[in-house]
Amino acid sequence: MSIKFLIFSIVEIDTILNSTSFDVKIKCFLKCLAENGEMVINGRVVEEQLLKLVELMSTGDNTQLMSDFKTVDECTKIQGMDECDTVALVFQCGQEKDPILVKNSMKIVELNDSAGQSPLQPAIGQCITDYPCVMTRSGRQIFLTNGAFVDGFVLDICGKRYILGTAHITYRKAASWCCQFGLKLVSLETFEEFECIASSSLGGRVRPIKLWTSASRKGTQENGFRWCTSKAPFNVSMWKWNSLNGFPDHSIMTMYIQNIPDGTSYFNVDLESEPICLPLCEEPPL
Question: Whole-model pTM?
């Protein structure tokens, strides 16, 4: 029997699903329910799990999928007074923005509980999220005003602004480094952006250059791939890949920029446990 039916009746559950105001008991019930569905771990709402849930429920409507991604992205940023309050506020936000998404999510969690295992089991190519991410006032000003600093520089490429680091560091350190500017590791939604970056001077850096990207969300060709920071889908066949690896079946993915015009730039899947590359950061897509 599902855990929630030990506490609430069917009528009470329907009331919860149609409400946006909750008392303390309901707030903590929602937290318990979310933990049961592995959407909350140690009191923290796990955005990655919710995004996987959205993809699991996708019916092939890309417009709706992007709308659902936006709802998750906006709602999971909310912080309450405590863990129960935070989960309730996230739930409330979802109810207001997309009640059908919330109701379908609840059904998945119920099936999960009755089946004894989660439908959201970890997948190959999960995004890496366990790194500190703190924007600083000085860092943000550097990006906005094209200011000078020690370990990187601002680049304007094809009408878009980036920050390129000058130190070779690990993925987590690179992602955290971008955060100080209010930025994320680069994701490339179009081949044109890739070509712009590959053909730019990149601040006069000596090539070849190995750059971090935001990496892939999923790692199976059947289910497709998505950029971790923009959540936008991409088709593996539209990019040039390192022939040794073929496609991103791991969450570590780099961009290898070779000499121009004779060298061919490509994406690479790093199978090493701790490769180091230069961080390329951009404003997170809306």
Answer: 0.58
